[in-house]
Amino acid sequence: MLRIAAMVVTAIAIAYSTVVFQTITRNRILTPSVMGLDSMYEVVQTFIYFFAGSLSVWVLNKYLNFGAAIAVMVLFALILYRFLFRADKHPIYLLLLIGMILGTLLGSFVTFLQVLIDPVDYLSLQNRLFGNFMNVKKDLLYISVAILFIAFIYGYRIMDKLDVMSLGRENAMNLGIPYDRMVMNILILSSVLIATSTALVGPITFFGLIVANLAYQYLVTYRHSILILGASLIGIVALVGGQFLVEHIFELKTTLSVIINFIGGIYFIYLLLKESRAAG
């Protein structure tokens, strides 16, 4: 029951953050994870293990670890997004390129540090760097639910504004939407949600890309209330069904995040090729 609750929280958080993020970027390929947020989670955990060790209070105290991961990821996201989306004039493929370069750079840096870590600490670290629903902490799940509830209160209040913002910057401003302020608020909201889900169960890079685009494909509507609900339901079914396959078909020889990232990587390439053909 605890694992199912964690899957529901994760699916809703990632689906919501991805849909609203793609609304303000006006692109269905970009997601917070693709822009390097998951890589920053790996950096935080690797830094903790490298400088403090697996027996430090930052590892043993789940609240400190959880809070540190969320705080650093949100700070990184705000700095990154504030720079990239300033003036709203950067080509979307430049943003995608920057995000992938940052993710690769951070990943290489993490790999370098992991080579120097004590082997025992390294094994402990690996358990945190892959999405895993088998060892969800009940207390952290309650905190995640509380964060999700607070975020959704605000998200519900701006749902109509999101529908208008999907028309673009100029049209939204002409209709009375404080566009720049809303973009920053939505970036904060998206960052908090994706950081919370990642800190709870670990990184699942392409999950948001899959559920959001499937929702766009099968729910042909501009209303965010329907899109977010649809993406959340698709995400819940995918996580629950995927975990069933991991436990009963693959007999726990792999993790759910590995399967999702494999399928998501293929889907990501498909979307890139599709966008390229459409542009050409």
TrEMBL record:
This protein's record includes keyword Thylakoid: no
- State the membrane topology: Multi-pass membrane protein
Q: What does the entry list under GO cellular component?
A: plasma membrane
Task: Give the InterPro entries listed for this entry.
Answer: ABC_BtuC-like, ABC_transptr_permease_BtuC
* Entry-linked Pfam families: FecCD
User: Where do the TM regions start and end?
Assistant: 6-25, 37-60, 66-85, 92-117, 140-156, 200-219, 226-246, 252-273
Protein known as: Iron ABC transporter permease
